[in-house]
């Protein structure tokens, strides 16, 4: 994965998760951490939320990560697809350790933890030139 993509995903903290069940799309925003080694996005969310129920039914998800800017030359953002992860107990322990390292305040409201195994990313980065796209995996 291009280091510019890794740096961008690592420095940000909110993703938009898109799910779909029976041709009905849904989106939700979640705080996340990036596990660079495994190419996972890790986040907390209650079991009863629509996006979790949808993702448990259809593990194919998509999403975005972006930052607010005031000028077109600074636009940066990521579009991604991936597989939803309902972690085993052992994997959940690892996910919590990674998540709480970045967001220790989240321990105040315990919630189930989930993951996204990234399988495709397109990053738009106008700071590298207007309309510059970085794709992972490269084709």
Structure description:
This protein has one domain (3-136): Electron Transport, Fmn-binding Protein, Chain A (Pnp Oxidase, Chain A), CATH 2.30.110.10. The protein is 22% helix and 42% strand. It has 3 helices and 7 strands, in the order H-E-E-E-H-E-E-H-E-E. Strand 6 (113-125) and strand 7 (133-136) form a beta hairpin. The longest helix has 14 residues, at 89-102. The chain starts with a helix and ends with a strand. The relative contact order is 0.22. The mean pLDDT is 94.
CATH class: Mainly Beta
The largest β sheet comes out as: 6 strands, antiparallel, barrel
Task: Say what the CATH topology is.
Answer: Pnp Oxidase, Chain A
Judged by helices, strands and strand pairing, the structural class is alpha+beta
Q: Could you list the spans in which at least 5 consecutive residues all have pLDDT below 50?
A: none
Any key phrases for this structure?
3 helices; 139 residues; alpha+beta; 42% strand; six-stranded antiparallel β-barrel
List the helices and strands and how they pair.
Blueprint: H1 3-11, E1 14-21, E2 24-35, E3 40-44, H2 50-57, E4 60-66, E5 76-85, H3 89-102, E6 113-125, E7 133-136
Antiparallel strand pairs: 1-2, 1-4, 2-3, 3-6, 4-5, 5-6, 6-7
